[in-house]
């Protein structure tokens, strides 16, 4: 049984915590919120609208002390970039592996996060896109980018109105996969609609971001030529999809060292190799 600490009890963190209750493979042992939050001291079950669990919510200012008492094997962070880096430092110093699902890091913050894991010799999954479906979309886009190498590519992402990071971390990851598929470096650019039109064709992958209502998450990638187009799309219906991925990543990172992503957790490269081998065998 993996013992888990949930950090960040907002829109998504609460759903992830709820999905951990009553499971045989993972057990929630700590629930951590923002220092000064009115969630501090509440039973996490009450906060989640279920029966009491005996786990009291604590502020992240007491993370160090909490880790020593409750000894989780892994922590999952759904907070914000600044809070996450502070929390990740405390976790790493306590040799606790982590799943970083928080998004919106600057390049410098991202490098800092990696070095926290490497220098402290702990395991970390950095997962700006934690669902199985969106990782498969990213993988398919990498292949499509190779096969349709002279097609224009446009990424359209849609999220709820209060989502802070624009574009989404997932959209940036998709753009990176497409660049990788085409063997292009440094091609990811965040553009306005007008820039996207004027710069089209110059190794630019435009990302269009929409923020409206309660949309959980949509990523569409369009490959278009003068003759036809192909669209690959992923849509999250419920935040439980994030919980599924986060729990899988938490179980994966226990006992490992180093920095991983969701493609490692989901073993996507191996799946592609198996597919390619099957194809080869069928022609033999
Ligand atoms: N990887 C993925 O696939 C994926 C999926 C969904 C979301 N996310 C990311 O996860 C993050 C959270 O998303 P969300 O939608 O749940 O946002 P949210 O509702 O704003 O939740 C963030 C939570 O973090 C809490 N917090 C702030 N500072 C903290 C600290 N120092 N220690 C502990 N908790 C702290 C906030 O508390 P207060 O409300 O009290 O300030 C809030 O409850 C975002 O970066 C989002 O982009 C990633």
From TrEMBL:
Residues the entry annotates as binding (S)-2,3,4,5-tetrahydrodipicolinate: 169-170
Binding site for NAD(+): 38, 101-103
GO molecular function, one term: oxidoreductase activity, acting on CH or CH2 groups, NAD or NADP as acceptor
Catalytic activity: (S)-2,3,4,5-tetrahydrodipicolinate + NADP(+) + H2O = (2S,4S)-4-hydroxy-2,3,4,5-tetrahydrodipicolinate + NADPH + H(+); (S)-2,3,4,5-tetrahydrodipicolinate + NAD(+) + H2O = (2S,4S)-4-hydroxy-2,3,4,5-tetrahydrodipicolinate + NADH + H(+)
Pfam families: DapB_C, DapB_N
BP-aspect Gene Ontology terms: diaminopimelate biosynthetic process; lysine biosynthetic process via diaminopimelate
Entry-linked InterPro entries: DapB_C, DapB_N, DapB_N_CS, DHDPR_bac, NAD(P)-bd_dom_sf
An example Gene Ontology CC term for this record: cytosol
Protein's cellular compartments: Cytoplasm
Keyword list, A-Z: Amino-acid biosynthesis, Cytoplasm, Diaminopimelate biosynthesis, Lysine biosynthesis, NAD, NADP, Oxidoreductase
Stored PANTHER family: 4-HYDROXY-TETRAHYDRODIPICOLINATE REDUCTASE 1, CHLOROPLASTIC-RELATED (PTHR20836:SF0), DIHYDRODIPICOLINATE REDUCTASE (PTHR20836)
Family: Belongs to the DapB family.
Oligomer and partners: Homotetramer.
Protein name: 4-hydroxy-tetrahydrodipicolinate reductase
Organism field: Mahella australiensis (strain DSM 15567 / CIP 107919 / 50-1 BON)
């Amino acid at each position: 049984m993996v013992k888990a600490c949930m950090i960040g009890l907002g829109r998504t963190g609460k759903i992830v915590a709820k999905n951990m209750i009553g499971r045989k493979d993972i057990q929630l042992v700590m629930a951590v919120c923002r220092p000064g939050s009115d969630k501090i001291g509440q039973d996490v079950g009450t906060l989640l609208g279920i029966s009491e669990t005996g786990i009291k919510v604590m502020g992240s200012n007491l993370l160090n002390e909490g880790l020593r008492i409750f000894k989780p094997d892994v922590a999952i962070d759904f907070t914000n970039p600044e809070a996450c880096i502070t929390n990740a430092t405390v976790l790493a110093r306590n040799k606790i592996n982590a799943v970083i699902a928080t998004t919106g890091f600057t390049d410098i913050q991202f490098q800092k996060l990696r070095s926290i894991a490497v220098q402290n010799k702990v395991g970390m999954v950095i997962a700006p896109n934690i669902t199985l479906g969106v990782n498969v979309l990213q993988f398919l886009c990498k292949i499509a980018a190779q096969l349709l190498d002279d097609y224009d590519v446009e990424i359209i992402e849609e999220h709820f109105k209060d989502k802070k990071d624009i574009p989404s971390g997932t959209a940036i990851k998709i753009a990176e996969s497409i660049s990788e598929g085409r063997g292009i470096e440094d091609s990811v650019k965040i553009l306005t609609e007008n820039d996207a039109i004027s710069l089209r064709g110059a190794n630019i992958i435009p990302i269009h971001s929409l923020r409206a209502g309660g949309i959980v998450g949509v990523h569409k990638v369009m490959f278009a030529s003068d003759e036809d187009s192909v669209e690959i799309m992923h849509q999250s219906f419920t935040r439980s999809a994030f919980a599924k991925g986060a729990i899988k990543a938490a179980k994966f990172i226990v006992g490992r060292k180093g920095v991983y992503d969701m493609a490692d957790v989901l073993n996507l490269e191996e799946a592609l190799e198996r597919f390619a081998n099957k194809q080869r065998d069928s022609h033999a």
